[in-house]
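Workshop exercise sheet. Pairs work together: one partner reads the sequence aloud, the other fills in the structure field after running the prediction. Swap roles for the next sheet.
Pair: D.N. / O.F.
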Amino acid sequence: MSADAAFGLNGKVAIVTGAAGDIGRKTVELLLSCGANVIAEDIKPAVDDLAQDGRVVTLVGDCAEEDTAQRAMILARQHFGTVDILINNAGRLLAKSILDTTADEWDGILRTNVRGAFLHSREALRWMAQCGSGVIVNVASISSVIGIADQCAYAASKGAVAQLTKALAVEYGGRGIRVNAVAPGAVVTGILDGIVPNGRELLASFGVKHALGRSGQPEEIAAVIAFLASPLSSFVTGAILMADGGFTAM
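Structure field:
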C-alpha cells in the first residue's frame, strides 16, 4: 500500500513549523509522499530549499511572532484554499542547570517552544473552528513528563506544550478538531548544534538509556506525526504519544 493510501492525507493542507530541521524536513517529505500540500516554515532561510511548485510553499519567519503565524495561515489559504493540519514542530534546547540559566535564556526557550505553538494554534483554530474540522500535532518531549537534570527551561517549555495540547483538545473536541502531541526520546538530529561539540554522536550515545537500545531517527518521529495528523488516529485526542524507544518505561 502506498503512503498516500495508508495515511489518508491526499489533498490535505498542512503547516509545518521548524521545517528546516531534521524532524521538520522528514515530516514535510512524508506529508508530500502522502499527497498533502505544505506550508514549510522556519526561521532559517534554508527552509527555502524545500520549495516545490504547486506542492510546498516556504515561509522564513520567527514562529514566536504573531505576524509569522498569521502569514502562514494566509499563505495556506491563498495557495491551497484551506488549512487541515498544523504541526508545531519548531523548538530549541537549552542544556543548563538552573543556577547557570539566565532570565533571558529562560524567556528565549519559552518564547520559541511555547509562545510559537500558542500563536500558531490560535491562528489555525480560528479557521478550523469555522470549518468544523482540523488536526493539530505538537512536538513535545520525554522532558514533558519526566525530570532530566540540566533541562529546567526546556522541560518547563515542553511541559507547557503537553498541557496546551490537553487543554485545546478538551476545548475544541466538540467542534471536530483533534489536538495531540508526540513526545520523542533522544533522536539523532542537529538540535545540539552550537551547544555541544559532536552533538549527533552524543545523541546517538543516549541509545543505551532506551529499552530498544538505540536512539531514534528523524523519519521515525515524522511517521508518528503523520499518524496523529491522519484519519488513522480519528479517535485520538488530548494524547501525549511517547515515541521514546521505551525510555520512559524503564
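Discussion prompt: The chain has seven helices and seven strands. What would you look at next?
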